[in-house]
Amino acid sequence: MMTFDENKDIQFANTIRSIIEKIDTENTVTGWIVDLRHNGGGNMWPMIAGLNALVEDGTAGYFVQGKLKIPWLNENGKINGKQKPVNTYKIKNKKVKIAILFDGKTGSSGEMTVVSFLRLPNVKSFGQKSAGYTTANYNFPLSNGGQLLLARTYVMDRTGKSYKGEITPDLAVSDLSNTKNDNVIKTAIEWLSK
């Protein structure tokens, strides 16, 4: 998600939630796979708001700067920092297993989206180490009209575990083919089927 336009953010979050709602209402879902491989980043908030349909509301993680912890609020029907509401659908079975997939091309807000699922009791992660851009950028305007972005924070998951670089999956799977039937998907399906 590479925009910070409120209407596009809401449309993106609603698209994710509508797909989840359609799958969940038309099927008996026994597990979810959230594939964040090759998600290079952009704007984390619409992704987290869209995927909120899969999880309970609450604090999904934190930005940490010095001793200051800034929580990521993950609330149904809301995109953090936006006024307009989004679809409020929640899956029927909130205890169903969720497999999170990521790889070395999962970076920045893609990694923040990964972190928003970590340490939930029904979640397990699969793939390869992430890119290691687990920071928040601050914008500094320059006198020539340019901008300088500096990483000034790191992140913590909901339990307070710090991520100051790469995120390591619970189960490393070395297949880098990134197809709909690769070994990462197969390993996740095996876990979901148990």
From TrEMBL:
Keyword tags: Hydrolase, Protease
GO molecular function ontology, one term from the record: serine-type peptidase activity
Keyword Oxidoreductase: no
Gene3D superfamilies: 2-enoyl-CoA Hydratase, Chain A, domain 1
GO biological process, one term: proteolysis
Domain Tail specific protease: 4-173
InterPro entries reported for this sequence: ClpP/crotonase-like_dom_sf, Tail-specific_protease
Signal peptide span: none
A Pfam family: Peptidase_S41
This protein's name: C-terminal processing protease CtpA/Prc
Organism: Rufibacter quisquiliarum
Source lineage: Bacteria, Pseudomonadati, Bacteroidota, Cytophagia, Cytophagales
